[in-house]
């Protein structure tokens, strides 16, 4: 280890090799507080060439490497266990925005918020947005195929990436930047590395698509009687709102937790069970279109905002769920996808099963109903106890759903991958891993 540390220090410079426990600490624990690990060191390369040299050195020493971006992952995928943490935070350059092509090249450590600000200045937007925009990095978002708030309009990370540069476990640099919007010349590496959770290669740069900014946005918070109404309304809004930009769900439990933690008074005079947050964006004002689509019996109450302050106030109810839940304890965060029609039966059954197994547990559901994606958050469990996680995954599987919609498999879900992928598929994934990383040094505890 001493020789490896000396080599890494020579590559990046001593101030970018962190070995002291107090400097390593923030890289060794995830943002949920559920996962803790140990890093031999944290190494922070500033260029692709340095990243390549770091990987070649670790490869020669057969030392595991865990790539880490903003450390905002939710499945323990960037937490080291006796590994070198390769932090991408110094790979933080952004090319000038190509406004004619609506494209940009971002290094892996560029934070989402920085990309968003640059796009805004150019009259463009990046298609993926999420509450962790201040910490999430492009490399991490590629590696987890991040989804977020606008998947129903722009798709997830995989739909935004046209070129990738990455480094294999042995230090070989590969990929093509700039990429092209259309390029049918064999296997598609941007797509393959998206969602690979750092197990095949370390992404160093991504060539990304951008979209024209839509100047008119309006947002509505809707109060509904039950989840059945939310499903009916979701189907209706998808058909009747061509400007639909976000469609999110949460429930009374989550609303109360947010109200309490942030000392906000509830937005409606009466209690409701289910809330939808609907956002429309367009080149002309979509308010009339939204109002017409909302004249439905399912809507018991509604608050609408067009100005940014009012819209942000409505969004807070949804975006503050993560922080409010975390303030109560360490949650088990299960991120699942289901056919929309199964939402009512699933939500009833999941509450029932959790209470049967752990009567004192608190379950908070929220998520992206427009994408069939629910976040099942459970408080009051010991961090290592997987009994409920497994019961929920099995339930999801019985409805034909996925055990990961947008957070990835990480460490948490690795034992359950076969609930959603066939043994033939997992075997092919293992063979691909072997080709890219024959000594298994890249994020070895994750995914497979
Ligand atoms: C969200 O939708 O807010 C994110 O996926 C984060 C979370 O699930 O807590
Ligand atoms: Zn989410």
Topology, element by element:
Blueprint: H1 2-12, E1 17-18, H2 21-28, E2 38-43, H3 48-60, E3 65-68, E4 81-87, E5 103-107, H4 112-121, E6 124-125, H5 138-144, H6 151-154, E7 161-167, E8 173-175, H7 189-193, E9 202-209, E10 211-212, E11 216-224, H8 227-240, E12 244-251, H9 252-261, E13 274-282, H10 287-293, E14 301-305, H11 308-319, H12 321-328, E15 332-337, H13 343-357, E16 362-368, E17 373-379, H14 387-398, H15 423-436
Parallel strand pairs: 2-4, 3-4
Antiparallel strand pairs: 1-2, 5-9, 6-10, 7-8, 7-9, 11-13, 11-14, 12-13, 12-16, 15-17, 16-17
Task: Please describe what this structure looks like.
The protein is α+β, with helices and mostly antiparallel strands. Helices cover 33% and strands 22% of the residues. It contains 15 helices and 17 strands. The strands form 4 sheets. It has a 7-stranded antiparallel sheet, with helices on both faces. Strands 1-2-4-3 form a 4-stranded mixed sheet, with helices on both faces. A hairpin with a 5-residue loop joins strand 7 and strand 8 (173-175). Residues 130-131, 322, 333, 375 line the site of D-malate.
């Amino acid at each position: 280890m001493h020789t490896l540390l000396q080599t890494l220090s020579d590559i990046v410079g001593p101030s970018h090799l962190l070995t002291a426990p107090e400097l390593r600490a923030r890289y060794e624990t995830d943002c949920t507080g559920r996962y803790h690990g140990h890093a031999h060191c944290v190494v922070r390369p500033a260029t692709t060439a340095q990243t390549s040299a770091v990987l070649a050195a670790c490869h020669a020493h057969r030392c595991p490497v865990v790539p880490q971006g903003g450390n905002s992952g939710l499945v323990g995928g960037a937490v080291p266990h006796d590994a070198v943490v390769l932090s991408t935070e110094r790979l933080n350059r952004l090319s000038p925005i190509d406004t004619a092509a609506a494209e940009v090249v971002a290094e892996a450590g560029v934070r989402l918020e920085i990309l968003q600000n640059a796009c805004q200045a150019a009259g463009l937007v990046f298609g993926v947005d999420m509450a962790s925009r201040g910490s999430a990095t492009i490399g991490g978002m590629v590696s987890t195929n991040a989804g977020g708030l606008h998947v129903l309009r722009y798709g997830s990370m995989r739909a935004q990436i046209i070129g990738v540069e990455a480094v294999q476990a042995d230090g070989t640099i590969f990929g093509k930047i700039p990429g092209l919007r259309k390029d049918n010349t064999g296997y598609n590496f941007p797509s393959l590395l998206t969602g690979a959770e750092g197990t095949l290669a370390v992404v160093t740069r991504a060539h990304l698509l951008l979209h024209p900014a839509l100047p008119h946005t309006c947002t509505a918070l809707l109060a509904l009687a039950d989840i059945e109404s939310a499903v009916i309304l979701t189907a209706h809004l998808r058909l009747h709102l061509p400007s639909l930009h976000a469609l999110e769900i949460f429930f009374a439990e989550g609303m109360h937790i947010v109200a309490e933690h942030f000392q906000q008074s509830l937005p409606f005079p009466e209690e409701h069970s289910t809330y939808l947050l609907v956002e429309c964006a367009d080149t002309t004002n979509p308010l009339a279109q939204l109002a017409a689509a909302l004249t439905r019996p399912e809507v018991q109450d509604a608050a609408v905002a067009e100005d940014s302050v009012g819209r942000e106030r409505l969004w807070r109810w949804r975006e503050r769920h993560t922080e409010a839940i975390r303030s109560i304890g360490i949650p088990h965060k299960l991120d699942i996808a289901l056919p929309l029609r199964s939402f009512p039966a699933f939500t009833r059954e999941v509450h029932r099963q959790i209470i049967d197994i752990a009567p004192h547990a608190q379950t908070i559901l929220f998520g992206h109903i427009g994408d069939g994606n629910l976040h099942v958050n459970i408080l009051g469990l010991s961090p290592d106890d997987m009994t409920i996680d497994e019961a929920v995954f099995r339930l999801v599987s019985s409805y034909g759903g996925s055990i990961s919609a947008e957070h990835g498999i990480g460490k948490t879900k690795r034992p359950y991958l076969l609930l959603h992928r066939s043994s033939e598929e997992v075997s092919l994934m293992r063979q691909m891993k072997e080709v890219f990383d024959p000594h298994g040094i890249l994020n070895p505890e994750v995914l497979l």
